[in-house]
Amino acid sequence: MAENTEEKTSLHPRNPHRGRYDLVALTKALPKLAPFVFTNEHGIKTIDFTDADAVKVLNKAILKLQYNISSWDIPQGFLCPPIPGRADYIHYLADILAKDNGGEIPTGDKVKVLDIGVGANCIYPLIGHRSYGWHFVGSEVDYIAAGSAKKIVESNQLTDAIEIRTQSSYEHIFKGIVKPGEKFDITMCNPPFHASAKEVNVNSQRKWKNLKQDKNTDLNFGGRNTELWCEGGEPRFLNKMMSESKQFAQSSKWFSSLISKKTTLPGCYNSLDYLGARDVHTIDMAQGQKSSRILVWRF
């Protein structure tokens, strides 16, 4: 059922972040980045990726320079996403939508995307709208995160392009968010992939250890429970999403989700086969040594 794909070692060809960060241009766009920039032992300008403040300011500079987002911030303790990898998801979704459009990527606000778990950072709608002009609905179960996302949208005058909706139930994905008769071209999700707070801490310690060996590694700083873990972890969350997607099969042409763990895939394939999905694809993504994948399906 799964589409075979070759292993990737770099970002999507259309991803503007394939090379090193242009810290000269980024600092020019946002002078507040300057204090965090230094030249390493190899003569290369960089920042300290172990410094959460530096990473956040870097994100602000990228969003301003690349995406014309002049106002962006997140509350203390929320996920600060690595933008290059987030952009990759958007560009691969564009390829999927092109399949039903004669090979051409559909652009403009007639394309409607649902981002499940938009987060306090609202990063996918920002990148997707600026890259392709798509209209986004972002759902969020954490009311503080939803408020932050709304503030970002409003402060950048994007209320006509991005709508934030609060999910009132932890038990539902699409129910309570998708309105009767509403149609989406594709849904997307970056699900919580840990099964417990303890698992989050173990993984974070491993990342910090790896960072000491690789100063170019991008880290996700912070992250609340709803962003990082849920009971049953990634498999249970995805099983719930896939089951509910069947109920909303007429509401979206495609459904998709990031898959962090390759071992999660076989169970997903079995579930989608049982649910009667007629078209399933697995898209490999990679950024340096970090690899993940997108699962895409429709009924």
From TrEMBL:
Locations listed in the record: Cytoplasm
InterPro entries: METTL16/RlmF, rRNA_lsu_MeTfrase_F, SAM-dependent_MTases_sf
GO CC annotation terms, alphabetical: cytoplasm
EC annotation from Swiss-Prot or TrEMBL: 2.1.1.181
Classification via NCBIfam families: PRK11727.1 (NF008725)
EC class of the enzyme, as a word: transferase
Biological process annotations from GO: rRNA base methylation
Keywords: Cytoplasm, Methyltransferase, rRNA processing, S-adenosyl-L-methionine, Transferase
A GO term for molecular function: 23S rRNA (adenine(1618)-N(6))-methyltransferase activity
Organism: Mucilaginibacter achroorhodeus
Family: Belongs to the methyltransferase superfamily. METTL16/RlmF family.
Entry function: Specifically methylates the adenine in position 1618 of 23S rRNA.
Entry protein name: Ribosomal RNA large subunit methyltransferase F
Pfam families for the chain: Methyltransf_10
Catalysed conversion reaction: adenosine(1618) in 23S rRNA + S-adenosyl-L-methionine = N(6)-methyladenosine(1618) in 23S rRNA + S-adenosyl-L-homocysteine + H(+)
